[in-house]
Amino acid sequence: MKVLVTGVKGQLGHDVVNELTKRNHEAVGVDIEQMDITDELCVERVIKEANPDAVIHCAAWTAVDAAEDCIDKVRLVNATGTEYIAKVCKELDIKMMYISTDYVFNGEGTNFWEPDDLNREPLNVYGQTKYEGELAIEKLLDKYFIVRIAWVFGVNGKNFIKTMLNLGKNHDKLTVVCDQIGSPTYTFDLARLLVDMIESDKYGRYHATNEGICSWYEFACEIFKQAAAMGRSEYDSEHLTVEPVTADHYPAKAKRPSNSRMSKEKLSENGFERLPSWQDAVKRYLKEIEF
User: Fold this and answer.
1) What does the DSSP assignment read for 224-285?
2) How far is CA 263 from CA 9, 14, 83, 134, 253, in A?
3) Structure confidence at residue 119 as a pLDDT band (50, 70, 90)
4) Rounded to whole angstroms, how far apart are CA atoms 61 and 184?
């Protein structure tokens, strides 16, 4: 199978290309230099020249706070750019996978969001434009996967784990938000699942994160516990204290959902192997990176 992957320079696109290659698929990785997704003619030309069997669309505007100040630019990337890709996939009659986000939901309550829950009420510009991307795909295509992910970390790029490790090196006390609940997602694990999915024709909306839920505070505590267990004493409880605080201690331009619990039962129902626990993912990830 030949698969075109957008956003190859990002955490997820990087790992998806590696996973496709590992399975002897032909991966065509593109980023803005090869295919500017906001340029409709460029999108059409690049995809038609590649002539893939499927597109996995990982590219997006993901700077959540910065998005609040430039809605038109963000919409052009996340919604219009997605629509341009979907139009070409429809014309070529090929599969499309769109990577979406927990931010399409309003984040209220404590229930797990279902993949086919149509009550999507984004709280910020990023979430709204990703939601508009979902709508474009649903309107144009039949052969599509919409895969919502959250709290992403991978080897290639910045993420919460790297931020915590850097802060922990230089501080003896940190405060981390405890009233936002969700599930971390390791791109190495996610890439395997995404390739399993693109190899199938079990189309639809899915949620895909590592198993288990936690707060950002609990996530941070686990990162430091695992790092200390690897012999890094600067992260142990004698050298570093982590305290929980509520989100209002860190006012941000973009409102964040407090509830990002997402149901993954649909993966099991369709025969897909779910991801390992997030704690296991953190352990393996720390062995992969230099810190």
Assistant:
1) HHHHHHTT-GGGSTTT-EEEEE-GGGS--SS---SB--B--HHHHHTTPPPPPBHHHHHHHH
2) 29, 26, 27, 18, 28
3) confident
4) 19
Say if residue 103 is exposed, middle or buried (CB neighbours under 10 Å; 0-12, 13-18, 19+).
Answer: buried
As a whole number of angstroms, the distance between CA 233 and CA 238 comes to: 8
Phi, psi of 21 (to 5 degrees): -65, -40
Q: Of 84, 126, 186, 217, which one is the catalytic site residue?
A: 126
Helix (H) / strand (E) element for 84: namely helix 81-92
Specify the DSSP element, H or E, that contains 207.
strand 204-207
Across residues 161-170, what is the average pLDDT?
A: 96
Q: Is 144 annotated as catalytic?
A: no
Can you tell me the distance from the alpha carbon of 248 to that of 177, in angstroms, rounded to the nearest whole number? 9
pLDDT tens-place string over residues 202-239: 999 999 999 999 999 999 999 999 999 999 999 999 99
